[in-house]
């Protein structure tokens, strides 16, 4: 019971003391310059402009609305003045060293007509500090310069409650401003693009049209930022908010410029690729994709550093930190760095290009793509092999696509029954065949008797076929081999069997008539001094050159005979 009574007495005492303490706090709120300015700003943040008006000496404006003056002064301060409360005096007498007793300066607002001081003055009667009458008398003029015009008078006072650095109505106004700026920017760029495309449509090139389309997106973003910043001027945003928006707008414009630069890089790469394809120069086609990626990465790095500097970060510290991090990453990513430099080595040295058929190590395939990290090759089994560039660049690469002609080489084994003159006949006829063939280069083109084999007389045939296409080479080689068979048969000789043969009966042997004919022809050439061994004379080579057509007569691809000739 006693405890209950004690609690009741404490409650009654608290009820009596708390109002007294609140009144004392209210009365003490203006006892010093700092407390007076703090009380005014807190009342404005609470949108209680009637309470804020108590901190104004509006004796010089007896007919004006004190609450309206308090609100307008807050708008002007938000626009043009940063109030440093710590710089204001905490003494009831104010700052005694400024040469103006009982008057303290809050700050100075620069106007076209000159600086205007925002002053606090101690009332002699009450001892309270208030905003000086000469400052209150300039509120209307300052508001005309830096206020919100009729908008500030139309909105209710509760909309001016501070929520962070923005007032409530500004939180609603900014999203609407972004939407309106976007609609206007999109409309303006769309109309401008259509008009510009009609103008550039009359030109012979399409490059100007592609440039306009590439710039449309970044132009919309830049115009959006410009319209938003212009539209934010009448909103009366606080100085910190304006400073933040200015930095953000600069960063967004830099991003838009980066976006445009990246689009221009893509467009330039596309134009280069198209020109190279039109000229048939595919050497640099592999370099363009990698160069485009490297340029984009470098551009993004520069733009990122510039954006961070614009936002207030210390770029030198960041770069120094990146250097330390880069060393650590270099140790941790040695293989990745090795692959990157391997890609650079491939692109600079260009041993292979995209689309080339080559041998790498002990495998064969066609180059599909050369990236920053790896090279993809499609094998003869139609599978994709991915090889890290560091390993690929160290392999022995044989590029079949780079050859200008293909070697034709074979060893012929003739039967041991072949006589020396028959062999001479074969050598001369085969050399004539190589020199006369339209698709065989005559230097070098050689046929030589190279040795006595275990079961044959060995002849080496060596020449180059004038083609880089393997499929075409196979067709030419096939026809050459068929004509070689014809030459061997015409000489009366034959190919040796690569095995031991037991004759159970007498075979036909060599053709005696053709053997005599070949020997007689060789004797006649020797007698005339026209035996073309060991080489053909130059005049005979010129007579034989290109006299054997290819494709051969009668083939489907052979040219049709001229009409009007002898059938």
Q: How is this structure best described in words?
A:
- The protein has about 575 residues and is of the alpha+beta class.
- Helix content is about 55%, strand content about 15%.
- It is built from 18 helices and 13 strands.
- The strands form four sheets. A five-stranded antiparallel sheet has the order 9-8-7-6-10. A three-stranded antiparallel sheet has the order 1-2-3. Strands 11-13-12 form a three-stranded antiparallel sheet.
- The chain is rod-shaped, with a radius of gyration of 49 Å.
Structure in a nutshell:
53% of the residues lie in helices and 14% in strands. By secondary structure, it is an alpha+beta fold.
Helical fraction:
40-55%
Choose one word for the global shape: rod-shaped
What is the straight-line distance between the termini? 145 Å
Low-confidence stretches: 1-28
Kindly provide the radius of gyration, computed on alpha-carbon positions and rounded to a whole number of angstroms: 49 Å
Annotation field: number of helices: 18
The neighbouring-strand order within the major sheet is: 9-8-7-6-10
Q: What profile does the largest beta sheet have?
A: 5 strands, antiparallel
> How big a fraction of the residues is strand?
5-15%
Give the averaged pLDDT, no decimals: 80
List how many beta strands DSSP finds: 13
Structural class: alpha+beta
